[in-house]
Design brief:
The protein has about 260 residues and is an alpha/beta fold. It is built from ten helices and ten strands. It folds into two domains: about 1-90 and about 170-255, P-loop containing nucleotide triphosphate hydrolases (Rossmann fold), CATH 3.40.50; about 95-165, no CATH class. The chain has helices at about 50-55, 80-85, 105-110, 110-115, 120-135, 150-160, 180-195, 210-215, 230-235, 240-250; strands at about 10-20, 25-35, 40-45, 65-70, 70-75, 90, 170, 200-205, 215-220, 225-230. Bound molecules: adenosine-5'-triphosphate and magnesium ion. The site of adenosine-5'-triphosphate (ATP) has 11 residues, from helix 1. Adenosine-5'-triphosphate binds next to helix 1.
Amino acid sequence: MNKNKTKKTILDIKNLKKTFGNNVILENINFNLLEGESLAIIGASGSGKSVLLKNIIGLLDPDSGSIKINSTEMVNLPRRDKENILLQLGITFQHGALFDSLRIWENIIFKVQNQQKISKVNGRKLALSIIERLSLKPEILDLFPSEISGGMQKRVAIARAICGNPKILLFDEPTSGLDPVTGSVIDKLITSAVNTIGATAITITHDMASVSRIADKVILIDNKTVAWSGTPKEMMTSNNLRIKEFIKTINPKLFA
Ligand SMILES: Nc1ncnc2c1ncn2[C@@H]1O[C@H](COP(=O)(O)OP(=O)(O)OP(=O)(O)O)[C@@H](O)[C@H]1O
Ligand SMILES: [Mg+2]
């Protein structure tokens, strides 16, 4: 969570537009992220947050606009180059997406194993060191994803994302469906990755407590675009109607 004007730009999005058929999902999306910054993306269900993330990582192609990761233009990049960049990212999807046929430890080290040769013993050791940080028990290492609970699968997906210490992390709702204690373990992990290895992080979340814990920048996606941006503190005190309305919907107790 370092703020420094001399830091390099890790992500730069300009005039991004995404449609599905006649349905415009996102337009005029503009924002950037500097090295070591942690961004939270908030917005109502269906506002296009996951679609935005999938555009950033190249799983969806925008209709127009520019997405630069480390100054490389991702839009229309040849597939192999895109894959090389994706290997440098740590990503979790909203809906798990573990490899069903691989054991938990194999899932966790999947990306690292693709980049370097790693023995079974060292692979299991590496996976173990990560799951311990996520309050998961070693017994799960040799199980398959279908043999552990949904919340555990979610944490394994996060373990897979952070394995190998990628410098760019993207998490889609990493704490949704988890109990508050486990949620705060994950928040701490994100903060620690940002603070200790200087990772740049993007987290989609609807958990306002989480936003304050993990982010130093927030953007609200509403009406197809970035409707508001600021710091978590500004978010809670802003007089902007759209951000006020959003927070009120998410957490009516704050306004009771
Ligand atoms: N592959 C697709 N084809 C057609 N429409 C899609 C596709 N993916 C997403 N959409 C539509 O895009 C809109 C935005 O979806 P998205 O998943 O980004 O919402 P979200 O903000 O992540 O919502 P949530 O908070 O519920 O996860 C929705 O109307 C959805 O139906
Ligand atoms: Mg989503």
